[in-house]
Known about the structure:
- The complex is a heterodimer.
- Chain A has helices at 12-24, 29-39, 51-61, 84-108; strands at residues 27-28, 64-70, 76-82.
- By secondary structure, chain A is an alpha+beta fold.
- A 3-stranded antiparallel beta sheet of chain A has the order 1-3-2.
- In chain A, helix 1 packs across helix 2.
- The radius of gyration of chain A is 16 Å and the shape is globular.
- By secondary structure, chain B is of the alpha+beta class.
- Chain B contains 27 helices and 23 strands.
- In chain B, a hairpin with a 6-residue loop joins strand 4 (168-182) and strand 5.
- The longest helix of chain B is centred in the middle third of the chain and has 42 residues, at 362-403.
- The two termini of chain B are 57 Å apart.
- Classes of the chains: A alpha+beta, B alpha+beta.
- At the A-B interface, helix 2, helix 3 and strand 3 of A face helix 1, helix 2, helix 3 and helix 4 of B.
Amino acid sequence: MGENKPDVLQGTLDLMVLKTLESMGPLHGYGIARRIEQVSGNELSLNQGTIYPALLRLEQRGWIKAEWGTSESNRRAKFYSLSRPGRKQIEKETENWERVAATMARFLAPSN
Amino acid sequence: MELLRIVASRLKALFGGRRLDADLDDEVRAHISMAVEENVARGMSEEAARTAALRAFGGVTQVKEQYRTRRGVPQLEQAWRDVRFGVRQLRRSPGFTATAILTLALGIGAVTSVFSVVDTVLLKPFAFRDPGRLVVLRETQEETEAGTRVMPDNYRHFVRLMGETKTLEGGSIFHQNGASVSLGSDHPRIVGAVTASTSFFRVLGVQPILGRDFADSDGQKGAAPVVLLSYEGWQSFFQGDPGVVGRTLKNGGQPATVIGVLPAGVRFPDISIAPSLTTQSGLGARESVIFQAMRPNQFDLSADDSNFNYRVIARLKPGVTLAQAQAELEGLQNAYTQSAHLSIRLGAQVTPLNADVTSGISGALWLMFAAVGGVLLIACVNLANLQLVRAVTAERETAVRAALGASKSQLVMARLAESLIVAVAGGVAGVALAVAGVRIFVALAPGNIPRLNEVRLSLPVLLFAMALSVAAAIAFGILPALRSIGVQPQSALQRNSSRTASAREGGGTRSLLVGAQVACTVVLLIVTSLVLRSFSHLLHQERGFDTSQLTLAQVDLFSPQYGDNSPKVEAIKQAFADRAVTALGQLPGVQSVATSSAMPMTGETWIDSLSRPDHPIPEAQKPMVNVRFVSEDYLKTMQIPLLAGRDFADGDRANPRVVLISEGTARAGFNGENPLGKKLESIIPDGQQPVTVIGVVADTRINGLKNTALMVYAPYWAFTPWTLSFLVRSTRASDELIPEMRKTFWNIDPLVAIPELKSMDEQVDESVATDRFQTVVLTSFGGAALLLALLGVYGVMAYSVSLRQQEFGIRIALGSGKPALMKLVLGQAATPVLLGAGVGLAAALLAVRWVQSLLFQTPVLDPVSIGGSLLVLLAAATVAATIPARRAAQVDPMRTLRME
């Protein structure tokens, strides 16, 4: 892992997980972590373990559901999937994030 | 909604922690395996694949910790950890734990059980409407020499007062006595009865739950006799029959109609007829079961100024003070004295109902209360001391934990948890002790403590005692902890390298507390031993008669044939007494039988002044004597020695105007003259002729163990009372005799009531029940205090020894002998104990003045009690200090030196 990779911003991990589940369907923790790494092009410094507290947080809020199942390699694993409130939350979070990103972009734009 | 879900999921996690942990483990393991597989598939070696997978995952433990924090309720889990840690700590020092818990239990248990009794008996109001406004009204009579005498009420004066008063809302005049009640065919029972003017329940503010209250017409001349029943009376006579209204019962053989039933819990207290007449407690005081309307009989009471025979209860108008009512009634009485030209000067006395009912026993109860306060104080001091001692070790531990990175709040929480565990355990034990204590209290208590059957464990009191001792335990557990936070861990650790220093630190406070505790204990012990000595005096003094092998019965002649208006009533009563004495004498094993007009041990009754026609003196200077009407064999049966003259003989039956007097009466009435052959006036009811003294008998404590009464005995041939007691001396046990005696009485007349039938020893026992109760309770407090003091001294010494083990090890290594070490430890304990004992002795000398009135023939400065108490305390303290001292002497120097 490189030294200059940015940390995952507070709050963005949740959205990444939700978005991943939206596009991939039910997935286990390892799958989610790998997918996030792949999508970010290995640009993020993500300890794979940190997605577990995030998954728990999302589960507690009722945005995702968890179920034990069998993986493609025939291994017992916990599969997470989006719930109905979770789908709504994606819209909200996305909107939110876009607003933050736009604001940041305005600050960072060359001031000429 | 979302918050709720989070809370629910966290709580679920809190309880299913172990399973969820396993879940997480599985999940993480699956994650790593998948990563390894993928890495291997990419061509890595197994080992490199695993390393890479773990690196990508990050710290497994940190993730798990983070996960758990998020999952459960970390504060609760932390608290749970603190509690478990506390339990471990406490188990490591079982001595401290047991001492603290026992102290708390004793404190809470003793205080709560006694306070529950005091609360019910002294503080809880009656089940009457607005009981604070109820007063007992008595008349007073001004006497030139003796000051003012409080007297029962006169009917005529009562009617006048009620007509004129502006401070009283209403009043009711009543009699309180026994009634012989039956349902018709069965043997009658004697129950407490109130005969009251019809306003009685309106004054009390009580509504019957069945039927109706008295109406004014029930109290008119010629009205049909009606009664209301107490709830208990309704249950026991009519088994709670809902159709009881309209049924009849026999009251003294006369039918009366039940018109109503009072609510459960309404009990009318025993109002003493006048405070100066101390009828012996307990015996004869019966719960009032039937209430009858007072109807004018053949005597016209409204024209009689001299019949002072009633009790009055009244209700103050709202906003009127006791003093206002007192002043108004006093004024009305004075005015009446003048306008009616009475030879005596009348006044009034108004007492709050509550104070009146408890006046006889409040002294004893307050003493108990004080004793309990003392025990609680000792318990709190004990706890404080234990906690302070413990804090010294905790300080080092706190320093270690702080050095290892514990936060300040965690440090305080750990100490708090430990104190809380002790407090909760002690509290629970205290509650158990309190529940048991109330039971024991009620079981031991004599019958004359009013409202005792209503005593329940008082919840507010329990909470109070628990709050106090738990607060003490926690406060003294936390304060040192807070202080130790300020200490730099480094310095605390360094200082602790020599343990002697910290053991001595705070030693002053601890010694002070031990001293205070010892002082309190000495006071309690001295009071306890005074009361014990007094009780033993009471039981073991010369009684003047022989109580063993005596069985006694009380028989009430209440059926119509013995009624006032029967012309031959004297002969009929006497015939019953004659037949009973003869029949009882024929029972197997009976040696002698006598009858008397009063049950022994029931206090002073039938009090009359001794008048001598040959020696007239002013009424106020005449000695007051108790008159008893007895049968021929009375002296023989009671085994009272005849000192001079002769006993009654069969020949006196024809001319019964003869009396025996006791030694005390001879002294008081004849002042050294020979009383034999002298005359006495007006001893026998309706007897116009004087009686002749034929003999002098020994003084006895026949009315109660506390004093020898001045007695005059007359033969029952002169007058036979309606209430007779029979005394039977027999070689057989009372238990065998009692059923035969009952059968004998009912063979003669099945309609007489037999309210009492027991052995003389039982009667004596019951007569000192109040004193025994007091003694037992105070002794248990004294014992509790002693035990607490013992625990206190032991706890502190044991701890200080365990802290100084190293020092003792060094001392032994340097050649100090065991006796020298024991002396060192004992000396350390001796100072506070001796000082405390001294202070306690001084305090006790001041305090015992208040106990004086409760003591019988025991001086408050009784050297045996005081010396004995001090000895017991010092012995206990020595034992408590010797155990740790021996431990100090047995310290193994090699082990302790290696320990650091």
